[in-house]
Every structure is written in C-alpha cells, then in structure tokens.
C-alpha cells in the first residue's frame, strides 16, 4: 500500500497529467467516483466515531474558519438562517461551527450531496436543524428564503460547474461563499482524473475495518473570469481569501476563496 500511496503523490506533482475533453470522458475511467459504496461507508463511519471531536477548535482548518466567519457575518443580520451546503458531506462544517454560535440563533442547514451519501446520512445525522438532499434544484425550490449558499471544495467536482453556478446565482440567496476553489491558470478549463486515498476522505483516521486504497474522480479547474462573470450581475464580492487547500497541481491551478453578497 505504501507504494500505491507514493505513486498517487507523484501523480499529484506531475504537471503533465493527462487531460480530457469532457467531464464524461474523465468519468468513464473513474468507476463509481463519489458514489463508491466503500467511500460512503468510510465517511459515515468516521463521522460516527469522531463526532464528539467535531466542535473541538483544535481540529479546525481553514475551511472551518472561513465557514465560521461567514456564518457570524450572516447572523449579524438575521437571527434565523437557511443554509444550503453543497457537497457538505455528513454535515461536518455544521457540526464544527454550531457549538460556537449562540443557541438562540436558529440555523437550518441543508446538505446537498451524492445520492449514496444522503441515503446513509439521513437516518444517522438528521436533526431539526440538519437535513440532507441529493437534489440542489429541489432544495432551492423548497426553501422560501435562502440566506447562505455554502460551497467548499465542490464546484470543481460537479459534472457541469458553470451550470451549477448559474443555478446558485438564480437561487437569490442573500450570501454566497466559495471556499477551496480550484481555478485554471490556463486560458481554458482543465479536466483531469484526480486521485486520492480512501483514508484522506472524511474526518479522522481510517477505521480499522477498512483497507486503504486509491480512488479516482473527475475534476474541472474552471476559469476564474467566467466564474465571476456568472455571478457579478447579482452579487458583489465582500472579501476574497487565499485558499490553496483545494489545489493539487499548483503549476496550473490557483486556489481562492470568495464571499459574496446579493446586490
């Protein structure tokens, strides 16, 4: 296994990585990708085993701190907020920041994730504040008011990243946050097959009942100019922040975080 992990690390550092014309072309060589049953089981098992640590500030990373900053900003304006967390896993960011926010501030956190992960998470992690859906369009439609759309390291893994951004823009949320973004330094989108290890997904160490292995899934580094052009008619940038945590190939990828407010 050590040899496999080393080969994955080498591929991350290789600027001449194979590229694909379309997301579908890349997906064909990836197997189940984020719908992989064992991947889902690992993420869920890690959350169950380590949930008691999720509100421990010593485990916070830059993504958590950006989420907390944005939530505190929103809660200056509203006492009760609806949050859509696209690609929010098992609600990790909700669990991490909730304990630091006053209980009289009502948060309804709606995670939108893969069908396989939603099916497991609904029965284990749903509360009166935390819910799960596998349909972004329906979640937007069902909410009468959206105060924040939270996207952390997810746009680059969507089959249609620009279409997803257009859907988010049309949702008319008061605020948008994009953390762990991955933009192309080239003059075009770059579609690759990204690899990671099973153990690197989810919060905490790999449970002993699982054997580590390599996973593959398509990734699109989008153009920052087009990202901003989709949103600029309706949103203004409050602040941006350096965030390289979603970047694996710094030779031709740029990391950034952006917090935006409805005009």
What would your notes on this structure say?
- The protein has a seven-stranded mixed sheet with strand order 4-3-2-5-6-10-9. Strands 1-7-8 form a three-stranded antiparallel sheet.
- It starts with a helix and ends with a strand.
- It is an alpha/beta fold and 263 residues long.
- Helices cover 34% and strands 26% of the residues.
- The protein has one domain (2-262): Vaccinia Virus protein VP39 (Rossmann fold, 3-Layer(aba) Sandwich), CATH 3.40.50.150.
- It has helices at 2-12, 23-27, 37-50, 62-77, 92-98, 115-125, 136-142, 161-170, 224-231, and strands at residues 19-20, 80-86, 106-112, 130-133, 148-152, 175-184, 190-197, 214-221, 235-241, 253-262.
What's the structural blueprint in terms of helices and strands?
Blueprint: H1 2-12, E1 19-20, H2 23-27, H3 37-50, H4 62-77, E2 80-86, H5 92-98, E3 106-112, H6 115-125, E4 130-133, H7 136-142, E5 148-152, H8 161-170, E6 175-184, E7 190-197, E8 214-221, H9 224-231, E9 235-241, E10 253-262
Helix pairs in contact: 3-6, 8-9
The major β-sheet equals: 7 strands, mixed
Net shape: globular
What is the topology, as strand order, of the major beta sheet? 4-3-2-5-6-10-9
Beta percentage is 25-35%
- The CATH class name reads Alpha Beta
- Assigned CATH superfamily: Vaccinia Virus protein VP39
Q: Provide the low-confidence segments as ranges.
A: 1-12
Instruction: Give the helix level as a range of percent.
Output: 25-40%
Determine the number of helices (DSSP H or I, runs of at least 4 residues). 9
Count of individual domains: 1
- Compute the separation of the termini in Å: 51 Å
CATH architecture annotation name: 3-Layer(aba) Sandwich
Based on DSSP secondary structure assignment, what is the total number of beta strands?
10
SSE pattern? HEHHHEHEHEHEHEEEHEE
**Radius of gyration over C-alpha positions, nearest whole angstrom:** 18 Å
Averaging pLDDT over every residue, what do you get?
Answer: 91
Structural class: alpha/beta
């Amino acid at each position: 296994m050590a040899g496999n992990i080393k080969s994955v690390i080498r591929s991350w550092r290789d600027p001449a990585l194979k590229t694909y014309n379309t997301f579908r072309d890349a997906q064909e060589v990836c197997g189940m990708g984020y719908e992989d049953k064992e991947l889902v089981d690992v993420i869920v098992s890690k959350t169950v085993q380590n949930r008691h640590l999720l509100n421990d500030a010593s485990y916070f990373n830059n993504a958590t701190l950006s989420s907390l900053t944005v939530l505190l900003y929103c809660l200056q304006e509203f006492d009760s907020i609806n949050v859509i967390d696209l690609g929010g896993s098992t609600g990790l960011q909700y669990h991490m920041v909730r304990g630091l926010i006053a209980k009289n501030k009502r948060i309804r956190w709606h995670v939108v994730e893969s069908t396989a992960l939603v099916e497991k998470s609904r029965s284990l992690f749903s509360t009166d504040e935390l819910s799960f859906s596998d349909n972004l369009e329906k979640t937007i439609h069902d909410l009468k008011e959206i105060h924040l759309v939270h996207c952390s390291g997810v746009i680059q893994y969507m089959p249609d990243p620009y279409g997803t951004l257009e859907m988010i823009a049309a949702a008319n949320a008061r605020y948008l946050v994009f953390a762990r973004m991955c933009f192309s330094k080239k003059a075009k989108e770059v579609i690759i097959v990204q690899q990671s290890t099973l153990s690197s997904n989810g919060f905490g160490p790999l449970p002993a009942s699982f054997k580590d292995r390599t996973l593959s899934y398509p990734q699109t580094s989008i153009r920052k100019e087009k990202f901003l052009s989709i949103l600029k008619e309706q949103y203004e940038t409050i602040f941006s922040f350096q965030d390289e945590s979603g970047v694996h190939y710094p030779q031709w990828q740029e990391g950034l975080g952006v917090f935006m407010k409805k005009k």
